[in-house]
Design goal:
The chain is mainly alpha-helical. The chain is 51% helix and 8% strand. It has a single domain (10-74), classed as Rna Polymerase Sigma Factor, Chain: A (Orthogonal Bundle), CATH 1.10.1740.70. The protein has helices at residues 11-16, 19-35, 48-63, and strands at residues 64-66, 72-74. It starts with 10 loop residues before the first helix and ends with a strand.
């Protein structure tokens, strides 16, 4: 189900990602949730929510990377 606000994100996402990365995650998840509503568009056996989480993490990883300190940092 799409997230109306950042506060609605899963706790593990809110706990590890900086604010801006959370915004990216939310936007990407919601977009993917709309885009992959038809099972044939998903390509494999993943449910709609599962593919949306994968897309959201991929979007975050375009702008952030997990550092040696275990924290997520902007990619420069």
């Amino acid at each position: 189900m799409p997230f109306k606000k950042v506060d609605d994100l899963p706790e593990n996402v809110k706990r590890v990602l900086p604010d801006h990365a959370q915004d990216i995650y939310k936007a990407a998840f919601n977009s993917a949730y709309d885009e992959y509503k038809n099972p044939q568009d998903r390509g494999d056996d993943v449910d709609r929510e599962g593919v949306s989480h994968r897309v959201a993490w991929a979007a975050v990883k375009h702008k952030y990377q997990k550092g040696d300190d275990g924290q997520w940092h902007p990619i420069e």
